[in-house]
Amino acid sequence: MSADRVPLRRLPERVSFGPLAAAVADPEATDVFLNPDGSVWVDHGDGARPVPGLRVPAGEARELAVRLVAAGGRHLDDATPAADVRIGGGIRVHGVLPPISPDAAVVSIRLPRDDGLDLDALEARGMFASVPRALVDDLVRRRANVLVTGAGGSGKTTLLGAMLASAPAAERLVVVEDVAELRIPHPHVVRLEARQPNLEGAGAVGLDRLVREALRMRPDRLVVGECRGAELRELLTALNTGHDGGAGTLHANSLGDVPARLEALGALAGWSASALARQAVSAVDAVLQLGRSPDGTRGIREAGRLRLTGRGRLVAEPT
């Protein structure tokens, strides 16, 4: 780490990142990866690169993975060989043990920025090079329901957090996530986080239930950090019953792929393609598709909307 990268990232107390500590403390790092061969890779926003001379033995890697997941309140062992947790103020850790990872343990760490990023900072970093900043400001101002889409690492969470931060201070934001990751510098934020089952398989609280609970908290803006299953049904239903200003993120490779992704999640929730299409068109006002350029710059590539074709199929078209 170069001497000019100061101050270091503040790490949670009583949590040891072991041989990964220097990489995790680097304030410019966005991701740290421990691979099965013991190599450590760090992404500073322009693609992952190996840390020269650093190798973590298999036994130490397993101990580290188990310890970090335990620090997040979950178990990683032979019975549960993969787990995803949040540590401290938003550090996200995913651990995988053999035999799921055949050679050795794998640790993937997603790191939030300590200072967060507002829309002005994102504009300076090129977020709005293809789609004007004014369009995003207008979506927030008029309380549009927005779906932020893109591949992993494209900046969905960062953009959504910055958009929500620009909402009026009097508005109550209720945020539902599987593992809390959104960082929203706003004075009125309520966070709900899913709970995994215990060792006996009981006690799980899923995102779909949390969305229903959130509706009882009188949210001015209802947010689902990432739609991956039945919670999509609950979110779209809520946005169709008077809850405006809502938002969620969705993994999709392109704007054109968003309808197929929505249909797949709708099927998990028990909806037919036609039922999902009618709900989605009514609920979602805008889709913001993000991408990452070869030099690592994250930005909005397209803005679009959902509509129904004459045959009742769901499509996404640029606006």
From TrEMBL:
Domain of life: Bacteria
Family of the protein in this entry: Belongs to the GSP E family.
Protein name: TadA family conjugal transfer-associated ATPase
Natural source organism: Protaetiibacter mangrovi
InterPro entries found in the cross-reference section: P-loop_NTPase, T2SS/T4SS_dom, T4SS_GSP_E_ATPase, TadA-like_ATPase
Location of the Bacterial type II secretion system protein E domain: 99-288
